[in-house]
Amino acid sequence: MKLALKDLKCVRGGRTVFEGLSLNVRDGTGVELTGPNGSGKSSLLRMLAGFIPAAAGHIHLEGGDNDVSLGEQCHYVGHLNGVKRALSVQENLAFWTEYLGGGEIESALSAFDLENLSHIPAGLLSAGQARRLGLARLALVHRPVWLLDEPSVSLDKGSRKFLSTAIASHIKAGGIVIAATHAPLGVKFAQSLKLGTGGRS
Fold first, then answer.
1. What is the three-class DSSP state of 163?
2. Which H/E stretch holds residue 166?
3. Which pTM value belongs to this model?
4. Which of 146, 171, 166, 147 lies closest to 155 in space, CA to CA?
5. Which CATH superfamily hosts domain 2-200?
6. Residue 23 near residue 176 (C-beta atoms within 8 A)
7. Where are the domains of the chain?
């Protein structure tokens, strides 16, 4: 499997954020995406997830499922956690299990150390605990491509270890990870892509 990006161009609000961006990411590898605020890291991830269109260029997942979109073969973790505050931790995961078509709730709870919080309403969680719940979707249902936008935000040192373990395990199992970050994630990525402000990257 290979995620191929060819001559991508991103335009937001009439401004060219980046252009001429090409990248090949093979299965079992990851890319660390860096650059200053406004350089297009989040836009690139959202483009790959299918949330915004590319102004030019092509995106293709070679060896993926041709019957579904790339976005449906990805886990996207953005700045928001995507949790329902009125539901418990376990109920949130049950919702995602139904929405995503299956899943291992106990494995997800264990992967991000949420077992003791399983019956707590998400609205009562600390910022770090809520982030771990949002990240638990990664371990809930298999998706070959992970798109992570500042995934370690709000996590303490111990929680960052759960995240780095999950990322490393996914890569080792043949998955693809593209992670935008300003801080080290404790994972050795095969590639690093630094986006600049306005123009060719």
1. helix
2. helix 157-172
3. 0.94
4. 166
5. P-loop containing nucleotide triphosphate hydrolases (3.40.50.300)
6. no
7. 2-200
User: How far, in Å, CA of 44 to CA of 50, rounded?
Assistant: 10
Cβ neighbours around 157 below 10 Å, total: 7
Euclidean distance between CA atoms 97 and 167, whole angstroms: 20
The Cα 78–Cα 48 span in angstroms is 12
Residue type (1 letter), 61:
L
CB neighbour class for 43 (10 Å; exposed up to 12, middle 13-18, buried from 19):
buried
What is the C-alpha to C-alpha distance for residues 50 and 171, in angstroms, rounded to an integer?
A: 22
Residue 2, CB-side half-sphere exposure with 13 Å CA sphere: 7
What is the CB neighbour count within 10 angstroms for residue 10? 23
Continuous segment of H or E residues that includes residue 99: helix 89-100
How far apart are alpha carbons 82 and 64 in whole angstroms? Answer: 26
CB 83 within 8 A of CB 122: yes
Reading the block at residue 134, the tokens are 């949002």
pLDDT digits (tens, 9 = 90+) for 158-177: 999 999 999 999 999 999 99
Paired tokens of 37: 């605020």
Q: List phi, psi (to 5°) of 8.
A: -70, 145
Over the stretch 1-12, which tens digit does the pLDDT of each residue have?
Answer: 999 999 999 999
Q: Distance between CA 28 and CA 194 in Å, rounded?
A: 21
